[in-house]
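Inputs:
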Amino acid sequence: MTDEIVSLRNIWVKYDGYNVLEDVSLSIFENDLIAIIGVNGGGKSTLLKVIAGLVKPFKGEVKVFNNKPENVRDLIGYLPQYSLFDLNFPITVLNVVLTGLLGRRLLLKSYSREHVQAALEALKTVKMTGFENRPLNSLSGGQIQRVLIARAIVKKPRLLLLDEPTSSLDPDMQNSFYELLLQLKKDMSVVVVSHDIGVISSYVDKMACLNKRLYYHGPVEGALKTLQEVYQCPVELIAHGIPHRVLERHEK
Amino acid sequence: MIFEIFAYSFMRNALIAAIMVSVTCGVVGTLIVLKKLVFMSGGISHSAFGGIGLGYLLGLNPVLVAIPFSLAASLTIGLIGRRARVSEDVAIGVLWAVGMASGIIFVNLTPGYAPDLFSYLFGSILTVPVFDLMIMFILNMVILTVFLLFHKEFYAISFDEEFATASGVPVKPLYYALLGMIGLSVVILIRVVGIILVIALLTIPTVISMKFTHGIIKLSFASSITGLICTITGLFLSYIFNLTSGATIVMVLAAAFLISTLIKRLRVPRKKL
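Outputs:
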């Protein structure tokens, strides 16, 4: 039996007096690859932030690795939503990835050779080898996104939280990105927030459909069958139709 | 002629002050520009004026009184910006005006005329007393120590605060430490260029450096050097042409900024060819 890594029990979150999440309960297990889908403003990012310990629910219980999220930050890799920072910030690719190693452990210490090695390794995983000394603002949007994914995985987290990871990737890159997720999934649980159900449904094992409340949580097949009628998920989500499975899943 | 200038002790003091100011503006300026706190530094520097006025009223050293005052101002701006439902720039605007006004009223209430007031508004590097130099030195050491201990974290917070929080970097304490450093540096800079021109010294050297390098350590080093060259050039020019030193330094900074922009423009196309 696999371990329960994230356990949300009856989570309620409020912004400015309005409920963003209502009574959300969710379990994520080891090596899960789960997609959280839903409309804009449906609370997807908020749910991810609750798991990352960035947003405190006013009601309910959050446990990550049987602990409070803020106590297990070293085990959680996080990719915030794109475009939240200044793209012209004077920083090199390597330094961006290195910030993924920061935390309480590294206070008052400097980056060691092992840290740099780990960063280069992470860049290799996202196929960005050779870019380490480039300034960030010389990269394209898709390349930056891959660098940020490297930053999220550089500390080898056991839980990876990705907020709209494919939003700035072209369709070709999206497929290789999901291939990467399948590879990462062997070592960690992965949660992907997305409003595009298209490609994602052929890669993930489970889906959670969120619109303030959690309308569905379980295997992909069930989600697709019942999304619109029963669980009130928005029409445009499934308007693309159920995608063809382009590549067979890697089951090793 | 250069040696002739240093025969005067006030010129020597001015030079020492210039060096310390350059280090401050290099380090704190880099943090301010990276974290986009330029407007906030303006607010803090103007509210420090309230502290100086209070110093006159109480008959104490105005710089000593300005230290807790600008520290309190920076922490207040930070608290209001983070906690209350008031946006940060509104908080800055209010403190900016209130600080200035309270400074004027404190001076009004002070019996007699406050002869040095002009020097706090527009700076007077030539009349920096030795005692103030010592205060500046201590504050500089504090700022440098904090910077060297936490530069990685400051860099990460400036780049992506949310990610830094999720990684377990103590973002809040470091943010308040940064505000405190701005408050302290403002006190240092008041002596040299005056409240009104503080922003120039905190931003222009860093903005120039950002055209040619990146990385928080390199940036702060380059900014310090740039600041030093500009302050000393300004100092000499003000001596030769008998101009207000603070204003001259700022004009030199502005000229340096223009020149650096031109150099950058000329260099970039050549590289691409």
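Remarks. The domain at 2-272 of chain B is CATH 1.10.3470.10 (ABC transporter involved in vitamin B12 uptake, BtuC). The mean pLDDT of chain B is 85.
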